[in-house]
Design a protein that fits this description.
Elements lengths: L3 H15 L4 E4 L6 H12 L4 E4 L3 H15 L3 E5 L3 H4 L2 H10 L3 E7 L26 E4 L8 H11 L8 E6 L27 E4 L5 E5 L5 H10 L3 E3 L15 H5 L10 E5 L7 H6 L5 E5 L15 E3 L1 E4 L3 H29 L12 H15 L5 H11 L5 E4 L3 H9 L6 E3 L10 H11 L5 E7 H6 L16 E8 L11 H4 L1 H9 L6 H7 L3 E4 L3 H9 L5 E7 L3
Parallel strand pairs: 1-2, 1-3, 3-4, 4-6, 5-6, 7-13, 8-9, 8-10, 10-11, 11-12, 14-15, 14-16, 16-17, 17-19, 18-19
């Protein structure tokens, strides 16, 4: 028996495929069955990769990870009711970070709304301003209009730099039936070109380039062309190159450095320091922000006078020669700060002893053994993860003290780093990393570095598909466990009333992480000593490994 619901669903999804959509995430449900079965037909025909999840909140972040790594829109299908609401956290992050999600939510027809019907609520407009556009689509009598709606939705997902769109699709019974899959010519998603507002720049002293989350490699390229220090956050995708100033926080607060900055060029969304927004808001500093995908333009204190869609650098060898001395001072000072901090913390890589003195050799050997047995600190953990990650890998950083610690000490390295910094929330980190691992298509290892609370907040995302689909390349979830939310220890609330602070802010936990890993079928490694960290991170064994690292400080 044919059904208009299935005909419409197939026509809609087929048009998405023609435009370059490659991934569809489905959460099972009755009202959405025609969309789910259409996606399964397209998977059988080799047109899409289908990912089935039981939890809509986790599925939303999985779609987010797929979208940010593949840089193409991802469709997600849910049934009606609370299933739709569970997408909201991922929709907010996608809105602020500019990830193109196609939200296909099934709904009751008009006659079943407002009468107390099961799983019927007001879904039209449920995501508010978080979506670029929303459609409340009445039940279809045929496939007419489906392809046009798909094209409109894809166009809207490019608006304001890209983001989620919502198609609320009402279905009448029969909710599914026979429908032929049309011949689909798989297209390629065409990335949005920069807007018309392109600003020309020239090299000169007093300029710094700031790269926040999502800045990308263009920030590093422009810094070199300008002869400017590159102040790149660890999640920027620009933390490499000869102009990198890793110790940017310290130098922005140092005389003859931060106080000499006259112009700031910003790429991405800086979120990891107080020094950068303070610099931009300082009187006499001229700032230009290059727009990146996302809901809001970066504008701390609402003082940024200029925004651009892109920048170009006009070659000027004489001016560039002058700028080289400016950037050289920053780079040299930054390296000295990192070296001194490493030496003070005793984090230097183990070297060798070149002496014939037997006593000295024995003392050196004892020192090495002692180092191997040292407990793992935050500093050792983040440094170990950074050193173990290479260009063919992916690194996903959760919202915790760990990302800030890594931002303070990570040297330059050209690797793909992701973090949900649109809102900087703790939610969905494992699910996002799972999407990134799948989209990376078996290239290297996807490592996700999180705290213990981020693990527990998203533990359900360890479940994966449980079906025939591939879950992508090798994945490691590395948990720095300090038994609660120590990120709040640096805030004024920590000293106000220690008992109340511990009760409502620190949220200590005593979860058996090994049992949690076993419950979801993950390989488990516990790392308590420094010497065990690198072997655990570089082990090429299990496809899914949870590495639990109790932190000493």
């Amino acid at each position: 028996m044919t059904a208009a619901s299935s005909e419409y669903a197939i026509a809609l999804l087929a048009e998405f495929v023609r435009a370059g959509v490659r991934d569809v995430v489905v959460c099972p449900g009755s009202r959405s069955q025609s969309l789910a079965l259409a996606a399964a037909q397209l998977e059988r025909a080799g047109q899409v990769r289908l990912h089935v999840r039981i939890d809509e909140r986790s599925a939303g972040f999985l779609a987010l990870g797929l979208a940010v790594e593949s840089r193409t829109p991802v469709a997600i299908v849910t049934t009606s009711g609370t299933a739709v609401a569970n997408l909201h956290p991922a929709v907010l992050e996608a809105s602020h970070s500019g990830a193109p999600l196609l939200l296909l939510t099934a709904d009751r027809p008009e006659e079943l709304r407002g009468i107390g019907a099961n799983q019927a609520t007001i879904q039209d407009g449920v995501f508010g301003s978080a979506v670029r556009r929303a459609w409340d689509v009445p039940p279809a009598d045929s496939a007419a209009g489906a392809a046009e709606l798909a094209r409109e939705a894809l166009a809207a997902s490019r608006e304001r730099g890209g983001g989620p769109v919502h198609l609320n699709l009402a279905f009448r019974e029969p909710l599914s039936g026979e429908a032929a899959l049309p011949l689909v010519d798989r297209g390629a998603w065409a990335a949005s070109a920069p807007g018309p507002d392109v600003v020309q720049l020239r090299p000169g002293p007093g300029v710094v380039v700031v790269a926040g989350s999502g800045a990308g490699e263009r920030a590093e390229e422009v810094a070199r062309e300008l002869g400017a220090p590159l102040l790149a956050e660890v999640a920027s995708g620009a933390r490499f190159g000869p102009n990198l100033v890793a110790a940017y926080r310290e130098l922005l607060d140092t005389g003859n450095f931060g106080d000499r900055v006259e112009r700031v060029l910003v790429f991405g969304h800086p979120t990891l320091s107080r020094e950068v927004p303070a610099l931009i808001q300082r009187p006499g500093v001229d700032t230009l922000v290059v727009r990146t995908p996302g809901r809001d333009d970066y504008n701390p204190g609402r003082v940024v006078p200029r925004f651009a869609d892109a920048v170009t650098v006009v070659p000027d060898e004489a001016a560039l020669a002058v700028s080289r001395s400016w950037v050289g001072r920053w780079v040299t000072a930054s390296r000295r700060i990192l070296d001194e901090a490493t030496a003070a913390a005793g984090d230097d890589p183990m070297g060798s002893v070149l002496t014939d003195d037997a006593v000295a050799r024995a003392r050196w050997a004892r020192d090495q053994v002692a180092q191997l047995r040292e407990p793992v600190t935050r500093r050792l953990l983040v440094r170990g993860v950074w050193e173990a990650t290479w260009p063919h890998d992916r690194l996903v950083l959760g919202a915790s003290r760990l990302i800030r610690e890594l931002d303070r000490l990570a040297p330059g390295k050209r690797i793909r780093v992701h973090a949900n910094r649109g809102l900087g929330g703790i939610d969905g980190t494992i699910a996002t990393a799972s999407g990134i691992a799948i989209a990376a298509d078996d290239r290297g290892t996807t490592r996700v570095l999180i705290g213990d609370l981020a693990l527990l907040h998203d533990a359900g995302s360890l479940l994966g598909s449980g079906g025939a689909e591939t879950d992508g390349g090798r994945m490691q979830v590395i948990v720095g466990d300090d038994h609660g939310g120590s990120i709040f220890d640096t805030l004024e609330v920590a000293s106000a009333d220690p008992e109340l602070y511990a009760r409502v802010m620190r949220t200590p936990q005593t979860v058996d992480v090994e049992a949690l890993a076993a419950a979801y079928g993950w390989e488990f490694r516990r790392v308590e000593q420094r010497g065990d960290l690198t072997p655990a991170l570089t082990d090429a064994g299990a496809a899914r490994t949870l590495i639990h690292v109790p932190l000493a400080g």
